[in-house]
Amino acid sequence: MKKQDPSKRIANALEINPLTAERKLVSFIKEKVKNAGVTGVVAGLSGGLDSSVTASLCAKALGAGRVMGISMPEAGVTDPHDVADARDLANKFDIRFRVIDITLAVLGIRQNLTDYKMDAQISNANIKPRARMTILYYYANLFKLLVVGSGNRSEIRTGYFTKYGDGAADLLPLGSLYKTQVKKLATHLGLPRHVIEKVPTAGLWRGQTDESELSISYEKLDMIYAGLDLKLKPNVIANAAGVDISKVEHFIERERRMAHKLRVPEIPKL
User: Fold this and answer.
1) Is the predicted pLDDT of residue 230 greater than 80, yes or no?
2) DSSP letters for 133-158
3) What pLDDT, on a 0 to 100 scale, did the predictor assign at position 202?
4) Which pLDDT does position 165 carry in this prediction?
5) Which of 58, 87, 250, 252 has a Cα at 20 to 30 A from 259?
6) Is residue 242 part of a domain?
7) In whole angstroms, what is the distance from residue 238 CA to residue 82 CA?
8) pTM for this structure?
9) If we measure between CA atoms, which residue out of 232, 198, 233, 246 comes closest to residue 218?
């Protein structure tokens, strides 16, 4: 039998049945909330693709009254259109909604850091998702909720999240879906086209985008990971994805280096 072209194998591996995915994820959310004995969930709403899909699934799983969405903009960094999109999503699914500006909280932390360095871009930027997660867990404690994260499998494998920031959550419904698969699910869920096609950003600084930081498009990144899932050789994956083999090797190594972000703290054996 003739072997299937690697590009087609990878494309097939990235195909999903959106209806089946929706049913499984809705069931997953229901089960986790029931087992935890909580009243519902709280999620950060950035106005982007992943958080919109996550909130939509939670509303379908639990009903609008048991879902809280919180937009946490920073003045001068967050696009006001993103807050508007988050509000529209909350209104569409009748989700409880809050807007909590993190500007003063981030500024307060910076002002009290004796070794604060303005040019330490990543260290400074990571304050923001950690401040946002503090807010989400405040409301989780206050109303007996679980914090639902919106990280997808592409972000998880690259370690493209802030440890104890946007990587901190009680459950990650999209954790088994690559970014390109999340877009397909979003289309199935009827989310607005402009949200689905919005340039992905973590909102860490003005003009920041995921793909510029990762130096690769999500389409090619997902092809690399799908190829690795299929246990294809790096050179075969590189040819199929249309990238240099050094790019495949880079993301193999990056996944290894970032694995610590997915582990609980190391405990010595005595």
Assistant:
1) yes
2) HHHHHHHHHHHTEEEBP---HHHHHH
3) 82
4) 95
5) 58
6) no
7) 35
8) 0.94
9) 198
Task: Report the pLDDT value the prediction gives residue 208, as an integer from 0 to 100.
Answer: 85
Region label for 63, one of left (φ > 0), alpha (ψ between -120 and 50) or beta (otherwise): left
Strand partners, 216: none
1 pLDDT above the threshold of 60: no
Choose the catalytic residue: 22, 74, 85, 155.
155
Q: For residue 260, what pLDDT is reported? A: 93
Confidence class of residue 183 from pLDDT cuts 50, 70 and 90?
Answer: very high
Residue 142 lies in domain: 15-210
199 part of a folded domain: yes
Residues with Cβ within 8 Å of 3's Cβ and at least 6 positions away in sequence, in order, are: none
Q: Provide the pLDDT for residue 172.
A: 98
Residue count of the chain: 270
The first and second tokens of residue 44, run together, are 């950060």
Domain assignment present for 238: no
Q: What is the CATH number of the domain that holds 71?
A: 3.40.50.620
Is the residue at 89 inside a domain? yes
What is the rounded distance in angstroms from the CA atom of residue 59 to the CA atom of residue 26? 9
Decide if 50 is catalytic: yes
How many structural domains compose the chain? 1
The pLDDT, as a whole number, for residue 2 is 58
Cβ atoms 52, 195 nearer than 8 A:
yes
- pLDDT at 231 > cutoff 90: yes
